[in-house]
Amino acid sequence: xxxxxxxxxxxGKSCIGKMLSERLSCRLIDLDRAIEEKYGxxxxxxxxxxxxxxxxxxxxDTLTEILRSYDGCDTVLSLGGGTVTTPECAEMIREKSFCxxxxxxxxxxxxxxxxxxxxxxxxxxxxxKPSDMAALRSRIEELMAARSAIYExxxxxxxxxxxxxxxxxxxxxxEMLFK
Length: 179
Description:
Number of helices: 7
Order of helices and strands: EHEHHEHEHHEH
Oligomer: single chain
Number of strands: 5
Structural class: alpha/beta
CATH architecture: 3-Layer(aba) Sandwich
Number of domains: 1
Distance between the termini: 15 Å
């Protein structure tokens, strides 16, 4: 089974993906890390030098390669926060994986991202970084308004993460997978 972990940045996709792959004793693929390895640059470097459109093309190409080479072995695939905003990526994820959406409120996302937003290119607004918590909240609200329906549309299952540890969310996913 190919399990895709989807959701907004800061919801724990990478951490929960890692914990889930360990619990399932299976392979983990982090799409952002795969892109960085393939192109020899960090995500922020790609955004800074080539922009979002170029990054989304690289992301689609990398995802396509991963899915084409999928060999049927159990795998957890941790997606980037904007992966499914590209319609072709959303379609591939819906068709080729069991997608789990880690859903969080804006409050949870602000709390999780406030210390780390400078490394997140999509949190910039009009070329600048949010200068305070109100600006960060506003940017997250803007992106979530555009993305939440897309995340839900790709999901085979939705897990609300607010107030839960990554371990609790992982256990909830395990229970859901083995019902």
